[in-house]
């Protein structure tokens, strides 16, 4: 990030000019970004202390902290948080392991590796909603491919419903998410692997380090920034998961797949309580920003040292 | 001995690769096969993995209004068009405003540069659900609901920070000497950006455009909340709404799914070089 | 400074593009556009609804109706999110019985009490007016008078050795056991017990068949009393025993129709529209000619007290949106859609709300309208008096979600039936006090 520059030092007025130019250049984007995000976030904050109904959506009926208190006391809220954390940890964890594995596989350059890399792009580019619809059809209790496959292989005696048990439904939604997102991580990591200097690796090999040692002590530390980027993006995405649940299970069975985003949707747009919906979404924003801050600190440390 | 080990390890690698490819292509195959099956074959138990009577009728029904009485046909092509308009406009605006901002962040000596960069990264992480309620209220007041413009504006909330982030990475990699030469020749900053920096960073622009388009094409939540008629409804919403008739209209669903996936998948495959370089830029940047 | 002037031009350009995009698609002068939101599930098919729209547009060149459909489960949320726009995204909306109180309270619906003449009032079933009436004011035209009916596959029953459909749920279980033992179908009965309103409908039918009630006379929840707990425990037991299709926990009505139409269930509970599609439609069904209807059974204890049947009333109405700029034109369409003539011509999946059609000669004419009506019309006359309505309260949706959760929690063994229902009842009381 340090701006090592070959340019001659400029006079103070030139710097001022540059700043003024910079502001002009940044202005349109900043107006758009902060207009669309900062103002709404503040608005959400105000709204979260009210009892505003969807049918008359202008902030009204100040109720103090009661929206927040109601959630903190509600079992449904904590269950949704727990499910969201479970979804995030399991899906991102599995995706990272599989993604790293696939990246290493590509990096080993077996015959046909380029085809594999191209193939990875497909699941990643399939829209999330299509992905959801597809997996819902795969899990279909009466005609789905999962039943068909297991039945044809003789692993089950008769077709069975897959999405009727809360925990299993959640895990199957995670599987659908994994299919969609592993390629993203694999592609990022294989791109990063390709840029790593080979000399260290070769030197270590000459010194007698085995493949595992070379991976653990040389490649993995070098991959750290790339892994972190992939983690940041995926964690934040997984934490806000909504689309795929909306399509596959609609929150069921028995609210077993209601995540925090889904709960916010229900509060705001099914039950019409914009006020408590705002309180929830403000809590999500806080969670996410804390997470993001932690990540950004992690991300920038290695570079600051380098 | 050594050769033998090599053969074994290649075999293992190939085996692993076959597994990964199976995991990737099996669901895709099921999607495509479902879309060219007749309904009767689709409801067979166990499934006809290879349709005995493959047909393109589902595609005809969904794409050509008038060939089928189905309601799917009438709305689907309209939502497809909406998706193109929204994703295309979002991409365009992101490229224009994002280039300016990305350039300023990459090149100009600004005192608040780091703070700004952090906050843009932070904004990128704000979940849509946190913005949706107030945006909904504002859009309702301004009578913007149910128009493509509201989607274009709100999509900028996540697409623009992303575009700025990527573009500034690419601009940083443009050799500074090129710019300095132009600046010394009396070219303005804006002129330098357009005549010198952008052409050199063209691959980066293509990458950014692709990613932004895919992000906007994929978006569902804002579209679900902000649109209610086919005046602005996008493809993901149309597909989600057909899940009610799921058990019955499965062929239409899967056909719609293939059609909705085709533009992003084709774009990504055709420009895969840029996708891969974009991902590595993002990763290297950190 | 050259750069900043160019830069300004660019900004202006961006603003222009935005403004243009915003103005695009505004309708110019011409016929008044009436936008209608309907559903594509139960009742007439979208294709039939489109045909009615075309008729109306041809007869009324100064009005142009545009109709759109969503699934039932998306309908409520779509309406409430669309209502905040000015002018609203829709001029006419399809409203379920259970939403009228909520929508009327929110001010979404046009009060049409004074637009309905005495003659119309007279000729439509009194129970139909109950659908669209809130606190004595009428907020729309009733359209779909529906209830869940009991369907059975006569061929499967015969093969199992039964010559009549079950009259009680206990009898159904007995017949189902035989059907299952003989391997005729794996799971004899399919239900719509997904986490959706559909589950409430089935539960209410069973609840009243067991002598239970949704709410008591004071409006306090009564679904969690002894009768309600028995019903829910029975539901769980039939799944455990393999009599009810375990996938029912993820089914809505269309899944039930699908399973039944493929010959994979001997019994099903569904709305009227399934008769035509399952019993007569070769394209939709593998069991054409085998499908019969009979009264929805009740539990033995109630049958002994003389109760013949109990089911759920699932009626809907079409209403004009209060903020619509074209209320009169919209009302014209609603009147056309619910008119006697149109309802008679499209009676395959929906029966007329006009009571005179069910008497004397008109009844014979109604029965002869299409291949389905000889069966469905008499069945309607017999079944509809046993249909029970769900509470008409503004907080219904949220209360119902709590009850849906309770049913699912019991069906998926998260909680006992009593515990789940008590929790839902507590939520209901809490909503009431708000």
From TrEMBL, chain A:
It comes from the Bacteria. It holds the Pfam family BPD_transp_1. Keywords: Cell membrane, Membrane, Transmembrane, Transmembrane helix, Transport. It is a multi-pass membrane protein. It is found in: Cell membrane. Residues 81-295 form the ABC transmembrane type-1 domain. CDD domains: TM_PBP2. The chain crosses the membrane at residues 23-49, 85-108, 120-138, 144-160, 172-196, 216-233, 245-265, 277-300. PANTHER family: BLR7065 PROTEIN, SPERMIDINE_PUTRESCINE TRANSPORT SYSTEM PERMEASE PROTEIN. Belongs to the binding-protein-dependent transport system permease family. This is Sugar ABC transporter permease.
From TrEMBL, chain B:
Signal peptide: none annotated. It is found in: Cell membrane. It comes from the Bacteria. Keywords: Cell membrane, Membrane, Transmembrane, Transmembrane helix, Transport. InterPro entries: BP-dep_ABC_trans_perm, MetI-like, MetI-like_sf. The chain crosses the membrane at residues 12-33, 84-106, 115-137, 149-171, 192-214, 220-240, 252-271. This is Carbohydrate ABC transporter permease. The lineage of its organism: Bacteria, Bacillati, Chloroflexota, Anaerolineae, Anaerolineales. PROSITE patterns: ABC_TM1. Belongs to the binding-protein-dependent transport system permease family. It is a multi-pass membrane protein. Gene3D superfamilies: MetI-like (1.10.3720.10). The keyword Transport applies. Residues 80-271 form the ABC transmembrane type-1 domain.
Automatic annotation (TrEMBL), chain C:
Pfam families: SBP_bac_1. Gene3D superfamilies: Periplasmic binding protein-like II. Keywords: Signal, Transport. Residues 1-27 form the signal peptide. It comes from the Bacteria. The keyword Signal applies. Belongs to the bacterial solute-binding protein 1 family. This is Extracellular solute-binding protein. It comes from Thermanaerothrix solaris. The lineage of its organism: Bacteria, Bacillati, Chloroflexota, Anaerolineae, Anaerolineales.
